[in-house]
Amino acid sequence: MHAARTAVHAGATAEDARRALQERRLDHVLFYVYVVDEDDRLLGQVSARRLLLCRGDERITELMHQPAALVGMHESVGQAFEALSRYRLLALPVVDAHGRLLGVVDITAWTAESADRNESSNHESFSRIGAAVEEHRLGGPIRGFRLRMPWLLCNVASGVVCAMIAEANKQLLEQVVLLAAFIPLVLTVSESVGVQAAELSVRLLQADPSPAAFHRRLLRESITALALGACTGTIVALISLVFGNPAEHRAMFAILLCSVTASMLSAGMIGTIAPRIMRGAGADARFASGPITLMAVDVACTLTYLSIADVLLKRFLLP
Length: 319
Known about the structure:
Blueprint: E1 7-9, H1 14-23, E2 32-36, E3 42-47, H2 48-53, H3 60-63, E4 71-72, H4 77-87, E5 91-95, E6 101-106, H5 107-120, E7 125-126, E8 131-132, H6 133-138, H7 141-168, H8 170-175, H9 178-181, H10 183-207, H11 211-240, H12 249-280, H13 285-316
Helix pairs in contact: 7-13, 10-11, 10-12, 10-13, 11-12, 12-13
């Protein structure tokens, strides 16, 4: 935010405003002129172009219009940039709780932030294995092995845990072989949602790390993942009707619909939470979130899938 040096009093004419701006030493680009009352409360704004082209005797209050958006003094930088992008504004006034004009955030700050993010994109992670592009450019095969192997061990560990879960449900899988055939599909769609959520969470965490923003992201991602899960679960459940014994169709439909929905919901939540946990633990969320998310999603979804199958098969099919 910079000082609102383009503010003028509501009683001024266009010529008064132009003369006042010429006398001030503006250290930023002029986008809007802000109209305030005696107590510096924001009343409206006038674009620089309109001010330059209008007649000098026109009242500034006749030229002004309500700002498309405001940002409060306690809101985050990320929220301000989001409003600039959403409303396609060149500048955004910052006000206090009483509506007094405190300053301005303009497009130059937004583009500088975007440039910083683009610069950091050169160091983005391969989210599934936790490897950095730049680090691999600077190192040889041995360094690449050392960077990537620890994260691959996370996937090995999750595979072992999933195998243990499957072994514990061996009798269930033997009774309904079709259950085992759909495990890779359930894991694949859930992993996709988990990794997508983790990537979004990492980027949004960089823009706004506040707890309030995290809670909003978690709620939004949970609703999105639930909708994705219900849609995907319905499609997969319908596909399952082509396979297996017709006597199993009813049970498999219910199992896949419920388990895919629940698995994708949990994957979305895990992907959103993992970067926050990694950041709190002092790890680089860009590198650690992907492997940790995949590991947690695999275990959680395997357990969810087989638990739901156990309950529903007893209800619909097994004695």
